[in-house]
Amino acid sequence: MALLVLAAVTFAAIPVDWFAMQVRCHPDGSCEFARQGMLYYWPPATLLAYGAIAFLYLRAARSRGLGTRVLPYAITGAVTTVVFPAAWLAVRLYFQSHPYPDGPLPYWYFVLDRLVMPWGMIGVTLLLLAWLERSPGLLLFTSGYLALVLLVLPMGDGFGAPHFGVRAGMAVPQAIAGLVLLLGAAGFRAVQRRHR
């Protein structure tokens, strides 16, 4: 249930990011871009998503006559909705005021950047949900998801012409993260049906 909601929020972010991204390409083929639209989309979207997840979990638990500890998850979702965009802005401001090193950026920069992005934030809150539900399966899924998001997915490499390439370079990894969340939701749903 949570994975399905988070997948929907991730897929909905792609057109917002695509059309709100400001891209300026130079004659030498280099491009500058700003993704300010993310800051307007993700905080309200994640607050609504975590609120919906908490509501759906409570409703499902009550229909089964069970109690559930969803409040810590909802609170963590709300806190990360504020903390992670603030961290994302702090990282951006730091690197705007400090020059990039000559040569390739250090690998830790990319990992930190991805951690403070919304898809990294989703992984952190899923870790909490796995702990709250005491679900080894969700913990295993979330560990794989975080490894994919933090270490594997290409970010900003670009595909095709420069103006289209920057947008696609950001959209493709988001689509992959959304697809992984959607496949995870389908997988957990199939497992639940088998156990009934």
List the keywords.
mainly alpha; 4% strand; two-stranded antiparallel sheet; single chain
Total domains: 1
The number of helical segments is 7
Strand order of the main beta sheet, please?
1-2
What is the quaternary state of this protein?
single chain
Shape: elongated
- Name the average pLDDT: 79
Distance between the termini: 17 Å
Biggest sheet: strands, sense, closure?
Answer: 2 strands, antiparallel
Can you count the beta strands? 2
Low-confidence stretches: none
As a whole number of angstroms, the C-alpha radius of gyration is 18 Å
Helical coverage, percent range: over 70%
SSE class: mainly alpha
How much of the residues is beta strand, in percent?
A: under 5%
Give the SSE string.
HEEHHHHHH
Transmembrane segments: 38-58, 70-95, 107-131, 138-156, 168-191
Keywords: Membrane, Transmembrane, Transmembrane helix
Could you explain the architecture of this structure?
- With 196 residues, the chain is mostly helical.
- The protein has one domain (2-195).
- It is 76% helix and 4% strand.
- It has seven helices and two strands, in the order αββαααααα.
- The protein has helices at residues 2-20, 37-63, 71-97, 107-115, 118-133, 136-152, 162-195; strands spanning 22-25, 31-34.
- The chain has a two-stranded antiparallel ribbon with strand order 1-2.
- Helix 2 (37-63) runs antiparallel to helix 3 and helix 5 (118-133) packs antiparallel against helix 6.
- The longest helix has 34 residues, at 162-195.
- The chain is elongated.
- The two termini are 17 Å apart.
- The model has no long low-confidence stretch (mean pLDDT 79).
